[in-house]
Amino acid sequence: METNGQRTIWILILTSLGFFMSMMDSMIVTTASTAIRTDFHISMTTLQWAMNAYNITIAAVLLVGVTLGERFGRRQIYNWGILIFTVGSIGCALAGNIQALVGARIIEGVGASVMTPMSMAILTHALPANRRGKALGIWSGIGGLALIVGPSLGGLIVARLAWPWIFWINVPIGLVAVWLSRRYLPESTGVASRLPLLDTGLMMVSLAGIIWSLSALPGLKPIVIGMGSLALGGWLLYRQSRVAEPMIPLSYFRLQTFTAGNMATFLLYAAMYGVVFFLPQFLQAVGGANALVAGLELLPWTGTLVFVAPFAGKAVDRFGEKKIATLGLALQALGYALIGSLNNGHQAYWLMIIPLALAGSGLSMAGPALQKAVLGAVKPAAIGQASGIYNVFRLLGGAVGTAVAVIVFNWFGNTSNSAAFTSGFRAMMLVMALCSLLGIGWSLQFRISTDD
Q: Which domain holds residue 135?
């Protein structure tokens, strides 16, 4: 007979697995980027959509996924998310060109958009309050582990097999996860609200249009499409101000800390995703590393999460969100600036280790501080919706940051040779450092009682 302890373990494993898979797929593709670009003979501008299609889809669909779970059952929607994600993974693995890969990444993103919020909701609802905090800490740590092992695992798979296998590995895991979830996860529902399908469509089309326009500039066509996308975004905001149950309550943005925290989050992850798109390619194209070595060389950056994150949470409680978020953004900016200013393409890798560790420490500090600032700015009843908005800003920042990084790289360099690649890479790193510094301007605007 199954005990309460066994039941808790199964719930924790299965909810963490979905979170881990969705986070993993945003990172595992980074060390495969060079192989994908080479196989498909595409430019950096086109390649970015292998990442951005996934992130934009999650950002646009995430909030409607929460609504579906509350109405039809959190476990049911969670399982559908894993199944759709698995189907998308099969499409990615079978893709014969970048268009097919992007389409399959969109399908993956639809599935992933419900996996994270539903896994958190199931875990929170299933456990008593006295065990919830510890379980959520483990859940967050396992998701964060994907940021560490994702690039290294992707590099290992590309080096030993081929890049489609970074997607094939999702298939057996996804199918087993659905089967086990149906057996071990409890079902629960919440307050049913309207399904914002039109608003979700408007968000996806407007975001994709804006980012495509940025990447395609200059020219009349991207300007026209960009203006049209902005108009759709304006219509979305108008609708949100008029409906009784908005997907994005605009009243939250009257709270200074909520707005500042989301903007700082946007800039923090814009810088991070821009760097993670290019750094593995730089290590391969200029440093001569294969995909596996490039993934391992990212560990001074991603691996700091293990050492810094536990202390960062305690530091936020002691010193306040403003100070820790500001320090974290400053460290990330410093790390990126050092890599961009000192790297001439001929330096030994070991000279990048300290700057990478500084940047990783900054991200590990600023991330939880910003999340706490955003969620702490609203009333407890609004935390679920505020969390969804926070994640939209995080993912949207990543998509915009990747697009801006590609623009800067193309302005100052290209992929024709090591010198040209280094020139574009250095400029990109300095701009990403600037994004982090701009985030400080927002973090300094926090009004948090623990920091007053």
A: 1-195
Nearest-angstrom CA–CA distance, 150 and 140: 15
Question: The domain that contains 136 carries what CATH number?
Answer: 1.20.1250.20
| CA-based nearest residue to 367, from 258, 265, 450 | 265
pTM of the model: 0.84
Q: Is the pLDDT of residue 318 over 90?
A: no
Range of weakest confidence among 24-38, 351-365, 376-390, 414-428 = 376-390
Domain count within the chain: 2
> Are 388 and 66 a contacting pair, CB within 8 Å?
yes
Same domain, 165 and 251: no
Q: Which residue's entry shows tokens 């905090």? A: 133
